[in-house]
């Protein structure tokens, strides 16, 4: 009889251990990058289970300069949307479902090209984020340096270098830019960072047909021949 009790108890033991197993993992403990313009700093999340899951997350703390988070290009993004600077207050967000053994892009996006803020002590600016699902909790850090390009031919930019209109837009959007920026490609991205269209440009302006793109909020990224993003503008398609 005692042996039978042990046999019946074994499945319960294994079931208990399985329920406490780690349900997700992050790509890195700390994702770090030197930023000189626009950047997507990824730290992707992987579902380790054989079921779909949703993960809760919030910003625990940050040292990001106000000029980095006040622009339209700032965002912390999961598979739902990109959240603007208000997310830094610590409100809890929940991802959409993440498939079994699937990876969800999770990122911090910044455009510091018009900011003069440069770390002087070698310490990066950071955002610390807590993620949780069931019994699994993880804390990750996004760390960004503003690359000081004073000695490597920095292109000085201002808001007047790039003008996007109309905004909101309906069937098309126009963009004009300074020739010194060296813009050769223009691409449109949705809020979760997926490219929806791209165009090769010449001269200092472009007219982009957006009639077939669903209504919503998008980012227009301008890049040079080397693929370096030199400017980003946010617009609404109605």
Q: Strands across the major sheet, in which order?
A: 2-12-11-5-8
Q: Secondary-structure element sequence?
A: HEEEEEHEEEEEEEEEEEEEE
- Give the termini separation: 72 Å
Beta-strand content bin: 35-45%
Counting structural domains, the number is 2
CATH topology tier name of the largest domain:
Immunoglobulin-like
Structural category is mainly beta
Biggest sheet character = 5 strands, mixed
Structural features, described:
This protein has helices spanning 2-19, 66-69, and strands at residues 24-26, 30-35, 38-42, 45-47, 56-62, 75-77, 82-83, 93-94, 103-104, 107-111, 125-133, 136-146, 162-165, 172-177, 185-190, 195-200, 205-209, 216-223, 229-237. The protein is mostly beta strands and 238 residues long. The protein folds into two domains: 22-146, Immunoglobulins (Immunoglobulin-like, Sandwich); 159-237, Sandwich (Immunoglobulin-like).
